[in-house]
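Example (one chain per record):
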Amino acid sequence: MSVQAPIDPKHDLVSGKEPRVQVYWTAVTYKTVILYVLLAIVVILGVVYLISPDLYASLYHKAANAISAPDTESVAISQTQAKFVNLDGKVQIKKVNSVQWVTADYKTSLDKGDFVQTGADSAARITFADGTTYTVKSDTLVTVEENSMANNRATSVAVRISTGSVDLATPNWSSPDSKAAVSVQDATAQLHQNSRASVKNDPEGNNHEILVSNGEG
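Predicted structure:
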């Protein structure tokens, strides 16, 4: 703020000069302006709250629900995808819409048409949403052929072995019409609930084996 000494009007008249107009100004920073604006907003919100408190409660609940409520579509998708529950050694996957093999991890999800390949001295255990597990042994290449899930309805999962061996175990399903299968060459083994099987496929040696060790198939 600039300040000038006051001018005596009489002195100006005596000297023959007209009196000058004095202008005083004060510099205001952006911080001060923002502070006043925020203060005005707080005052307005306070007045609105006193007039209509129900409006604030409604807006608060909407905001809280928007933040905390999960995406139902994402939840539904994650509940129908197969997951890795055990990884040992080199395990790779190739998604159905991809041409590149990538290293599998526990965050990887599997859909119909995806490939899983294990290296030497490697293994992977895959669990589907219905509780069926496939243990992929070393030097094995499999394809997820079926993954049909529905709440309170029959489920259907299937894996095809191109080469190698897989152990299959089924749980006690909520629907007795649920199915779990594993295919080799032109043969398919379909297991009932609470069953176990070992399946091998050796195309080079023309050796195909399906052994049901527990339950029915």
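Caption: Helices lie at 9-15, 30-51, 53-68, 72-80.
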